[in-house]
Known about the structure:
- With 122 residues, this protein is an alpha/beta fold.
- It has helices at residues 2-10, 27-38, 53-64, 80-86, 103-112; strands at 15-21, 43-50, 71-77, 92-97, 113-118.
- It has a 5-stranded parallel β-sheet with strand order 3-2-1-4-5, sandwiched between helices.
- The mean pLDDT is 91.
Amino acid sequence: MALALAELRSARRRAVRIVDADCGDGALLLAAARQARALGFVAIEARGIDGAPTLIARARAAAAALDDAAIGIRFDCADMVAALAQEHDLPADIVLAPATAPRSVAVALTRAGDRVLTGACA
């Protein structure tokens, strides 16, 4: 994750979109957004997707504590394939993906973003 963000900044990017498919409690996505901000991104759009309502509630609570106008973050309780299909028209710069995924999810992941990072990325 750090390398992907650094490469985007080296290319003089000032804005970044990150999608975390299977985000759980949102910890990884929040860390990625903070890291992007630390690298100098001035506009960070982040979206977490998970099918577990209790985990999404925790993620939303953690995001509410984030106090940085440069970071826009949302967490959606949704079917992963359907949610990733919404990303197709404006693909994310980085998609965080589960280490193993069914074929339908894998195909949706590749269409949802420019760079798909699998497994626990930091």
